[in-house]
Design a protein that fits this description.
Radius of gyration of chain B: 17 Å
Distance between the termini of chain B: 48 Å
Oligomer: heterodimer
Low-confidence stretches of chain A: 687-695
Distance between the termini of chain A: 29 Å
Number of helices of chain B: 4
Number of domains of chain A: 1
Largest sheet of chain A: 2 strands, antiparallel
Low-confidence stretches of chain B: none
Largest sheet of chain B: none
């Protein structure tokens, strides 16, 4: 009877989810309520977690709770720390949830809500969660080894080097693109610039407090910090209203780019306790608060989604970025559905802290489901505003026009009604001079969030405060990604440089620190500058490049996972990783090919370079713009080279893996699995109750 | 009544402990109670030393994702 009731509940959840998905897919004509998105996503996640992840855990991986995890065997209170599964879930989620699931869906909304939402749900359930879960499992069985180490051991010696180089490349492009998002969000906005600038002295203050006054008292320091940050969000309005102060904090894109480059260098070279760590604490608290508030806001307000299910830009001529749904929707959504970068977290800190093997399902699969849900909420926030407003905010001046009148005329001619008055009033309501041409996704997401928040608390009176709170929230944790990433990139540069010249690899050598920091900052700073001066807004070329790099890393992770499963003798279930791998390789290779060779100058890097060269030859470029145009040509060619190198690296790895798979399947070589030996857990008697905080 | 108070108190205690562990407040206590520290293989760090060492270790590898 109990079993029947349980089955019935799951059948109801499945029917509800299928019904909601059907409603999203087939509703036409009138606006759809956002609650359908929540129901579709939550029911799909519940069913997938209950059935698919349980199937993977039991049949594919055969998780074994009698086996001691690395946290138990090496418990040193530093790296290897047995941690309660809910706490570790929080750590893991905080680590994987960056700006990607917010920005990617916002940009992909240009195709309409349907393709992005479906990929967010289906991609996460069948690809992203599977990748995170299986890589976490592989790392647990290998003493918490990193993806690079596992690739070297299980696939081949080149695999490790390719993974390391892929990580460095993706890091450089990622840092450039997130920095560009901040630049586009803060450009000519004294309120937002002041708020974000003030978080630096606040972080320094917290750093000193935590280092000298109350070492390790993170909670109290973070609460003080959050209160100060909320104060500066409000104080930003006073700065914006004051002509003299407003002038100081009104910065152009190029000035902001150099300020961020300087900040990245300082954060990388300064002691980590002074700036980087306290900012991370602040960011974690505000991120958690803002995400839960957004979920609650959507639930309470239940806004209508005004964007159509499919827009006219499915033809590939979208103003935000060029390219058709296949492959660019999948590349653009990135982290909300599958992210290669997650495999670095799943093979980094988390496997060293996990208490039992069975927790890998909840943490690896479950945290990615939550990340996907964040992506769905971002999609709702972006699609809840009128499409005309969305395109005006996200479209570059070269396409939609640089004034409200031009933008209104262009966007209305596409069939999305917009008046210049709407944009002027909206900018005024959120306390900005203009909201036009803010490519990058952050401002449009902030407008969407502010409208949802203000419908819950404060009404239109607080719209400007909510908008700047949302911008601060996005910029704060983007900066955290930026400074933490720059520091890790610095270590990678030192490690690679140390192979050529040993002293360079010493992480405590000040000259080495400064030089390696300058190299990594110079690398992403170059791409950032290129994006800022790009007349198409930079996001058009940089975000797809980031998406390709990130998904190629996912392909690397899935190649490693498939190889391990083959060696474990799981031929029958190999499709679980093989199908996502084949799909990811197909979309990334197609996107790479199109980004390099497409004859459309808005898509193909080489076509754009050729077009600009032809314009110079024909004398169509004014003399004053010649240098800038030549630089743009060089940048387009550089982007083409970077994309080619990334694609080639993954092809080499796949070929190496195929040779290995053939040898195993044809029994020419015995499968050598590099798992650490089985050690029985000492906590086995505590399975029913609380073992080491597992309550 | 007393039973429900007990449940609320227990839930609050669990929540508080979870928050302290999630944000890193309890890391030093964890370190002191870890098997490695109890074995006494290495000299025990002070709270200040542990805090700095822990941060240097954490921020030298990918720790925040995109």
């Amino acid at each position: 009877m109990k079993q029947l009731r349980k089955t019935l509940i799951w059948v109801i959840i499945a029917i509800l989810g299928a019904g909601a998905l059907g409603k999203i897919a087939f509703q036409r004509g009138e606006p759809l309520n956002a609650i359908w998105f929540v129901i579709a996503a939550v029911c799909s996640y519940l069913v997938a977690y209950r059935l698919y992840s349980a199937f993977i855990a039991a049949r594919l991986l055969t998780l074994d709770d009698t086996r001691a995890t690395p946290a138990e065997r090496h418990d040193d209170g530093r790296d290897f720390v047995p941690t309660n599964k809910w706490v570790l879930f929080g750590h893991h989620f905080a680590a994987i949830a960056g700006p990607g699931p917010l920005v990617g869906p916002t940009l992909a909304a240009q195709f309409g809500y349907l393709p992005g939402t479906l990929w967010l749900i289906v991609g996460a359930v069948l690809c992203g969660c599977v990748q995170d879960f299986i890589i976490l499992f592989c790392s647990i069985r290998r003493n918490g080894k990193s993806l690079g180490e596992m690739a070297r051991e299980e696939v081949g010696p080149r695999g490790g080097l390719i993974a390391q180089l892929a990580v460095l490349t993706i890091m450089v492009i990622l840092l450039a693109v997130v920095a560009l998002i901040i630049v586009n969000a803060l450009s000519s906005s004294p309120w937002a610039t002041f708020t974000l600038a003030m978080t630096i002295p606040i972080a320094l203050l917290l750093g000193l407090y935590l280092r000298f006054l109350r070492p390790g008292r993170v909670l109290e320091a973070s609460l003080i910090g959050v209160a100060l940050v909320l104060f500066v969000v409000v104080a930003g309005q006073w700065v914006s209203d004051s002509p003299s102060w407003s002038h100081i904090f009104t910065l152009s894109g190029v000035s902001l780019a150099f300020a961020i480059i300087l900040y990245g260098f300082a954060a990388s070279a300064l002691p980590v306790w002074l700036l980087l760590a306290p900012r991370d604490y602040l960011s974690a608290f505000i991120k958690a608060g803002a995400i839960f508030s957004l979920a609650a806001g959507i639930f309470l307000v239940r806004p209508h989604v005004l964007m159509p299910p499919l827009t006219r830009f499915t033809d590939g001529n979208g103003p935000v970025f060029a390219g058709k749904i296949f492959p660019f929707c999948f590349i653009t959504i990135a982290c909300g559905a599958i992210s290669g970068f997650h495999s670095l977290i799943s093979s980094g800190t988390t496997p060293k802290m996990i208490l039992r093997e069975s927790h890998a399902r909840f943490i690896g699969y479950g945290a990615m489901l939550l990340e996907s849900f964040v992506g769905v909420m971002a999609m709702v926030a972006a699609c809840a505003m009128p499409p005309g407003v969305y395109f005006a905010i996200n479209g570059p001046a070269a396409i939609v026009g640089g004034t409200p009148v031009e933008a209104a005329a262009t966007i209305s001619s596409w069939g999305y009604p917009l008046t210049s008055q709407t944009m002027t009033s909206l900018a005024h309501a959120v306390g900005e001079h203009t909201l036009l041409n803010r490519a990058g996704g952050a401002p449009s997401l902030a407008v969407g969030m502010a409208q949802i928040f203000s419908s819950t608390i404060g009404g239109d009176r607080l719209l400007s405060i909510w908008y700047h709170f949302a911008i601060m929230f996005e910029a704060l944790f983007i900066l955290t990604v930026l400074d933490a990433g720059t520091r890790v990139g610095r270590f990678m540069v030192q490690e690679l440089g140390g192979r050529l010249w040993k002293p360079f690899g010493r992480t405590g050598w000040m000259s080495g620190i400064l030089l390696s920091s300058a190299i990594i900052v110079g690398m992403w700073g170059y791409f950032l500058y290129q994006g800022v001066i790009d007349p198409l807004g930079g996001i058009n070329s940089l975000w797809p490049l980031f998406g390709i790099a990130n998904q190629l890393l996912a392909a690397v992770a899935l190649v490693v996972a498939t190889t391990v499963l083959l060696k474990m003798g799981r031929k029958r279930w190999i499709w679980i990783t093989l199908v996502p791998m084949a799909w990811i390789v197909t979309i990334t290779m197609t996107a790479s090919f199109q980004k390099i060779f497409s004859p459309n100058p808005r898509i193909g890097f080489l076509a754009n370079a050729n077009l600009l060269t032809a314009q110079i030859v024909a004398g169509k470029i004014p003399f004053a713009k010649l240098t800038e145009t030549r630089r743009l040509i060089f940048n387009q060619k550089l982007d083409a080279v970077v994309t080619t190198v990334l694609a080639l690296m993954v092809i080499v790895l796949i070929v190496e893996a195929l040779v290995q798979w053939y040898a195993i399947l044809s029994r020419r070589r015995g499968p050598i699995l590099h798992e650490s030996p089985y050690v029985p857990t000492q906590w086995v008697r505590d399975f029913s109750g609380a073992a080491q905080g597992d309550d | 009544m007393r039973h429900s108070q007990k449940i609320v108190r227990r839930a609050f205690r669990l929540f508080w402990r979870g928050i302290r562990e999630w944000c890193g407040d309890a890391e030093y206590e964890r370190y002191l109670h870890s098997a490695g520290t109890r074995r006494g293989c290495r000299p025990i760090l002070t709270a200040k030393e542990f805090y700095v060492e822990q941060l240097n270790r954490r921020y030298s590898r990918p720790h925040r994702c995109c």
